[in-house]
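Lecture 7, part B: from sequences to assemblies.

Below are the input chains for today's worked example.
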Amino acid sequence: MPDGIAMPLSHMRPGQSGMIVKIKGGFGLVGRLNGLGIFQGKRVKKISAMIARGPVTIEVDRVQVAIGFRMAQRIIVALDQ
Amino acid sequence: MRTILLVGNPNVGKSVLFSRLTGVRTTVSNYPGTTISYTRGFTKLGDEKLEVIDVPGTYTLEPNSEAEEIALKMLKKGDVIINVINAVNLERSLYLTLQLLERDTPVVVALNMWDDTKHRGIDIDLEKLRTMLGVPVVPTVAVTGEGIKELMESVPGATSPSGPTRSRDERWVAIGEIIEQVQHIRHRHHTWLERLQDASVKPFTGGSIAIAILVLSFFVVRFIGESLIGYLFEPLFNGLWAPVVLRVSSLMGGSGFLHDIVVGKLIGGEVNFVESFGLITSGLYVPFAMVLPYIFSFYLVLGFLEDVGYLPRLAVLMDTIMHWLGLHGYAIIPTLLGLGCNVPAVLSTRILESKRERFIASTLVSIAVPCAALQAMIFGLVGERGGQYVVIIYGTLFAVWVILGIILNHSIKGFSPELLIEIPPYRIPPWKIVVQKMWMRIYGFLAEAIPIILGAIVIINMLYFFGVFDIISDITAPVVSGLLGLPKEAITSLVIGFLRKDVALGMLAPLSLTAKQLVVASVVLAMFFPCIATFVVLLRELGVVNMCKAAGIMIAAALVTGGLLNLIL
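Predicted structure of the full complex, as C-alpha cells:
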C-alpha cells in the first residue's frame, strides 16, 4: 500500500506506480479526469514521459491515457514502497 | 418512429456497431448551432422501422465539453439507449452506464470487443453483470458482426431501473463492487503487441518507431501509386484510349472551339494527355491516371494507421512541437488528413477544444499541407525534373507550416490547451473494415473531383477562347513576373487553382518552365488560396470574418514565400 513519498505525476519515473492522493484543479479538470477513470484514490502506473516537458502516459485499469505535462503537474501521486 | 440512441465512450467501436445496425444509407448532420456532428440511420426490428442515432462519444453525462453537452441533450430524444461498452475496460465504461441507468430511458448494454477479453485474460460473469445492472447485457464483436442479431432481439427487453442518483464517488464505489463480483483477471505475460505499444510512447523508441512508420508509409504510398500509374493507367490510356481520342478528334474536324473543349489541342498531331486540356483527354487522365492512384495508396496507408490505433501515439510524440504552433498533439490528425484532402482535414479540426486552435489548425492546413491530388501532380510534373526539386517544395511547405504556426501562436490571444487523450490498444484491423473505409473515401473523391475537374476544363477553354486570360495576365504581370519570376501566363494556373489544384498544376505543363520556376509555381499554388471545396468548408467552420483573416494570411504568406524562393534559388 502506498505510504511512500507523494509527488506530481510529472515527476515520477517511468515504471513507477502509486495511488492518486490529490488533483489540484477546478471542477472542470477534476470532472474531465474523472470521466477517464482518473480520480483520487485510483492506482496509476507511469508508462512514459516525452522529453522537453511533453505528455505523460499512464496506465489506469489497463487503459493508457496521455496527459499534457502541465496537467500532470497537478496530479499528486503517493508512490508505492 | 421510435429512436434508438447509441451511447458510449470514444474508441469502443460504436461507429462500427452503428454501421452494422444501419447499413450504408446514413447521414451525417450537425447539431444545430454547433460544430458537433452525429450520424443518423435506420434499422428494422421485426416490422418496425427504427431511427438509429450515433451520439458523439462521451465519457460522462456531466457536460465537460461541447460534445458531451450535445450528447446530453440528444439523450432526451431517445426511446431506447444501446449503451456500447468496452468489455476489456469495464471499470471505465461502467461510469457512463451507471449514469444512464439513473435516468428513465430504457437501456440495453452491448458488451463490445468481447473477443478481446479472452486473449487478454479477462473473465466476465455475464449473468451476474445482468443481475447487478438490471438490464439486458449482450456480448458483441462489432467488427465481425457477432452478437448484433442478439443485440437487436434484446431491444424490446430494454428496461430502466431508474436507480438512485449518485455522486461521482458513490458511482465509483458501486463500480468497484460490480467489478469485484463480475470480473476476474488472469495473470498473463505481455504480448509483443503490448510491448510495442509501450515502446511507441517512449521518447527514444517512440521517436524511432514514428520515423520508421512515416518513412515506410511514404515509400509504400509512392510504390503503390507509381506502380498503378506505370503498369495500369498509363498503358490503358496510351494503348486503348488514345486511338479513340484521335478518332473523335478527326470526327470533330481536328480543331475549333467545340473540338478544343472535348478533345483539347493535339500536340504535333498526337494526344498529350497532360497538355491537351480537353474533357476526354486531360479531363479524364488527370483524375484517373495521375491522382486516383495516389488517392488509393494514400488512403490505404492512412486507413491502416488509423485502424491500428497509431495516430493517438503520434499525437503524444508530436505534442511538444505542436505546442510551439499553438496547438496540442491531437492537431496532428487534421494535419495528416490534410495530406489526403484539405476538406475532411478542416472538418476534423472540430476535435480540437478551442476556437483559437481550430483557426490556427485550419489556416495551417490550408496553407502548408498539400492535398494528395496536388502532391500526385507535383510528383508527376516536378519529379520528372529531379527528386531534389520535390524535396525543396516539401521542405519549403514544412518550414512555412512551422514558422507560420509560431507566428500565429504568438500573435493570437489565448493559450494552447493541454493534451488529454485515451490511447487505445493496438489492434490488427480486419481488412474488410479498412477496404470499406477506403472505398468510401475513393468514392467521395471521384464524386467530388470529377465534376469540378470537367467543369474547370470547360471554363479554362472558354477563358482562353474569349481572351480573358490575356487580360488577367497583363494586369497581374508585375506580381507574377516581377516578384515570382514566372511567365505572366502562369497566373492562369493560380486562377484555376481556386477550382482544382491538380488541374491547375497541369496547366503549367505547356508553359515550358524551368525547374526553378516550377518549384516556385508549385509552392505558390499550394499556399496562396484553398480550392473551392476547402474554401466552402473553411467559410462554414470559421465564419466570414475569420475566413477573410485566413485568406489574407494565405495570400501574404504565399507571395512572401514565392518571392523569397525566387531570390534564393
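Note for the exam: The beta strands of chain B are 3-8, 27-30, 37-45, 48-54, 80-86, 107-112, 122-124, 137-139, 183-185, 420-423. Keep this in mind when comparing with the next example.
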